[in-house]
Structure formats: C-alpha cells, structure tokens
Amino acid sequence: MGYGEYYTHRWHEYYESLSDEDRKKYREMNPQPESWKGFYKNIENHLSNKGNH
Questions:
Q1: How does DSSP classify residue 1?
Q2: What DSSP line would sit under 13-39, residue for residue?
Q3: How many CA atoms are closer than 13 Å to the CA of 50, on its beta-carbon side?
Q4: What pLDDT sits at residue 1?
Q5: Which residue, of 7, 37, 45, 51, has the fewest CB within 10 Å?
Q6: Band of the pLDDT at 50, cuts 50, 70, 90?
Q7: Model confidence over 2-49: pLDDT tens digits?
Q8: Using alpha carbons only, what angle is made at residue 46 by residues 44 and 47, rounded to the nearest 5 degrees?
C-alpha cells in the first residue's frame, strides 16, 4: 500500500467519525475542486449504505 492509499484510508476513517453537522462544516470549509465533482456525494452515499448517516 502506498502513502496516498494509506492517507485516503485514514481520511475516510476521520470523515466517517464526524457528526452530520461536522461533515457539513467540513464540506463548507473544504469545497471539492470542480474536477472532483460528486466526491462528497459519493462519500455520503457510501456512509448512508453503511447505516452510519
């Protein structure tokens, strides 16, 4: 596993640990680049499917 893969895994763990309100604040403070369109939506869909949202 490369450094980028490790970082991505850790970031997902962190983001998933946030409350709904804190995730909203995170998204507001860290808008996704245009080229990443749908990134946060995909993450939120994943969390919804896991039952954590």
A1: -
A2: HHHHHS-HHHHHHHHHHSPPPGGGTTH
A3: 11
A4: 65
A5: 51
A6: confident
A7: 778 999 999 999 999 999 999 999 999 999 999 999 999 999 998 888
A8: 65
